[in-house]
Amino acid sequence: MGAEARAVEELEERIIRAKERGLPKHLAIIMDGNGRWARRRGEERTAGHRAGLETAKRIVKFVGRDLGIEYLTLFAFSKENWRRPQREVNFLMDLLADFMRKNLDELLENGVRLRVLGDLDGLPPHVRQELERALKLSQRNEKLYLSLAVNYGGRQEILRAVRKIIQDFEAGHLSQEVDELLFRRYLYTGELPDPDLLIRTSGEERISNFLLWQSAYTEFWVTETLWPDFSPEELLQAVEGFQSRQRKFGRLVEG
Fold it and tell me: Is 141 noted as a catalytic residue in this protein?
């Protein structure tokens, strides 16, 4: 057996063991390091974003097809990213629209249901059009719930929820007490389960305004690997690390 065949067999065995131990229900990823990846190769940042998109496609397939994780959330474009040079912002917007246009059929065939976390109205019309089309056509799929955080910020999401609650109360549409269960319904994530595991690439150890409410008890896994070099094997390593932890949720655990 050749080295490549052995590597494939070992990966398949690891996947089987990971499934037996119990997978995270919801996986979130901060995809970081595209620019540094390009700079180390003497290329423009746009080359890093293109390579990062290809990595995202591989990871979505691996998570949904091979691992069978139900929920995947990818941090694609933050509220703060608008501060980048206009040329780069325009490229990222076009890249996202082009990806949805060219890959939607494959996503639908693989049972992916798309959800957008963030302010769609703040996106360029051609990007919003492609995302809204994908949202409509994928709404009946149930194999993988893929959420893209686009034009998203965690603080802004919480403020938006508070404003909507106040508006509904003043309009007479809300009479019950505001508790955690009600509040979460006003978030972009709605009824989605909170992330069990959050992966961040490129070695940065911060949450970057991502899923602030939802990540209260999320397990974090940080890797020095830049996003374009991130592989299914390393994602599986993160899952295996998650499975070795004891999640307490504030409780004392005996033994």
Answer: no
